[in-house]
Amino acid sequence: MQFKSVLTTLILALSVTACSSVNKIVYRIDVPQGNYLQAETVAQVKTGMTAQQVQYLLGTPVLIDPYSNQTWYYVFLQQKAYETPEQHTLVVNFDQRGIVTNVDLDKPLPNSGQAEVNNTIINGPSAPSKSWWKFW
């Protein structure tokens, strides 16, 4: 009788741990957080732009320096499934008049992810045009 209870407990313990030993089978979605930064829009931010122009391009910053309103921080955090999260920080500095003096990106952004599509049409040998009523 004791052997059956030990065997049942052992089988139950192994079956419960077997479910958790399989790793990375559960689907995890990609989680973007913060300001979605694209390389094309960040490249458009130049010195001499106004604060309104920068906000039109990039949106509202995640953080404005609390001690002086001349520094805006745009933070983009992307975590894809089980990969390590990747963070990009864009710092935009303004002068007293609200004109961009410096734009600093901590590391390069990945491309937009859109592969170049070759739209070349390849024409093969043309088939003779036949209609269905000329079949007979």
Automatic annotation (TrEMBL):
GO terms for biological process: Gram-negative-bacterium-type cell outer membrane assembly; protein insertion into membrane. PROSITE patterns: PROKAR_LIPOPROTEIN. Residues 34-103 form the Outer membrane protein assembly factor BamE domain. GO terms for cellular component: Bam protein complex. Keywords: Cell outer membrane, Lipoprotein, Membrane, Palmitate, Signal. It is found in: Cell outer membrane. Its main location: membrane. One of its GO terms (molecular function) is protein-macromolecule adaptor activity. It is a lipid-anchor. Residues 1-20 form the signal peptide. Pfam families: BamE (PF04355). Belongs to the BamE family. Part of the outer membrane protein assembly complex, which is involved in assembly and insertion of beta-barrel proteins into the outer membrane. Part of the Bam complex. This is Outer membrane protein assembly factor BamE. It comes from Aggregatibacter segnis ATCC 33393. The gene is smpA.
